[in-house]
Amino acid sequence: MTCTIVWLRDDLRVADNPALAAAIEHxxxxxxxxxxxxVSPGIRPLGGATKWWLxxxxxxxxxxxxxxxxxxxLKQGASADIIxxxxxxxxxxxxxxxxxxxxxxxxxxxxxxxxxxxxxxxxHSFQANVLFEPWTVRTGNDxxxxxxxxxxxxxxNRPTPPRxxxxxxxxxxxxxxxxxxxxxxxxxxxxTSPNWALAFDHRWNVGENGAHQALxxxxxxxxxxxxxxxxxxxxxxxxxLSPHLRWGEISPFQIWHATDEFRRxxxxxxxxxxxATKFLSELGWREFSYNxxxxxxxxxxxxxxxxxxxxxxxxxxxxILDAWQQGRTGIPLVDAGMRELWQTGYMHNxxxxxxxxxxxxxxxxxxxxGEAWFWDTLVDADPASNAASWxxxxxxxxxxxxxxxxxxxxxxxxxxDPKGEYLHRYxxxxxxxxxxxxxxxxxxxxxxxxxALEAFxxxxxxxxxxxxxxxxx
Length: 473
Known about the structure:
The protein is mainly alpha-helical and 473 residues long. The protein folds into 3 domains: 4-129, HUPs (Rossmann fold, 3-Layer(aba) Sandwich), CATH 3.40.50; 130-163 and 210-294, Serine Threonine Protein Phosphatase 5, Tetratricopeptide repeat (Alpha Horseshoe); 306-457, DNA Cyclobutane Dipyrimidine Photolyase, subunit A, domain 3 (Orthogonal Bundle). The chain has 19 helices and 5 strands.
C-alpha cells in the first residue's frame, strides 16, 4: 500500500496548509512528518527562544493531527537522509511540502525533489507562507525591489487579491503502520538549568488555536488604535502575531482575508481603513523581507550596501556588550526593552529599533552581533525580518534608515512612554527611572552620537553600493 508524505517545516497548522490539503485530496493514506534539521549545509541552527516555541507548537500540532486521525512523526537529523529513508520505508508515491525561500533551504528542497522524481515519487511544493512569491514581484526593469513602498504598492495593486485560505480538513486516512517517531522530549528544546523561559508559559498561547485567538483579540479590542498606538510600548495595541507567523501557525492569507472581512463588516469607515491598511503594511514588511532574503541570501551576514564593509565598527567590549544584553546600560528605555526580551522572549517594535540603534551607533558594535543575539532570544526570530530590520537600523540595508538617524533613547521614552508605564513595568524597582535614582549610563549619549556620525563620515561621498542579487540558474 502506498501513501503520501507531507513534510512540514515553518507551517505548523492544519488550516490553509496547501501541502496537507493536496495530500488528502490525493486520496492515499497520509503521513505527516516534521524534521528538526540543524545539520544540513547552510541551515542556521535555531536560537533558544525559538526552540522553546517550537516544542510547544509541535505539542499543539500533534494534537490537531491526532484529531484528524493521523499522527505527527518527529525525526531529527539531515532532512535528505530522513526523507529518503521515509520514502523507502512507507513505499510513498507522493511527497508534498510548502516552499521556503532561504537559499540553503531551497537548495535542499531542490535536491530532495530531484531524488524523489528520479525514484518515481510525485514531488510537489506549494505556496503557503508568503502572499507574493519573490520571483513574481519585479520592477519595471525586471529587477528585484530594494525599496519597501513601491514594492508593497506593486503587491496591493495587483488585479487579483491573494488567494482565499483553504479550509481545515475534517479527517484523513492514516497508513496501517506509522513510521517510528522520536519522542519530542528527547530533543531537549526546553531550557533547564536554569529554566530562563519560566515566564513564557504565562505570556504566550502557542499553537494554531492561539494564533487565531490572538487575531480575534486584535480585531475585538486593538485594531481601532493600531496605527497610532503601535508606537507606544506601554499600550497593548499590536497583534502579537509575529511568533505565530514565524512558525506558520497562521498564514498571511488568513490574516489578509480576515482583515478584509473585518473591514467590510465594520463598514469601511476612515478609521477602520486607516488602521487596517497600516496593519497590512506591517505584513507587507515581512513580505519585503522575504523578497530580500530570496534575492540576497546572505542578508543576515553580509552588508546589503557594500560600502559598510569598510565601516569602522569598534571592538565589542565584552563588559559593554554584556550590559546591553542584560539590560544594565543605565539607559532606561534600552534596559526596559532588553529585560522585556529576557522575561517574555519578545520586545515591542519601537523599543527594538531604539535598542538596536543604541548598540550599533552609540556603542559602535557591528549590527551582526545584535542580529545574532535577537536570533537567540526572540520567540519570533525570523530568518528574513530579523536580518532585514537590523540592516535597516544600521543603514546598511535595503530601504535603509539614513545613517545619521540615531535614536535618542531619552527622547524616545519621553515621546512614546511619557508616563513611564513601560519603564516601570520592566524596571519596577525604580518608580521614576527617567527622573532619579537610576544607575548612571555606561556611555554619554551625545558624545557617542557624535562619534557615530564621525565614523559614518569615513564612508565619504561614496554612493550606495547595493550588491547584485543572486541569479538563480
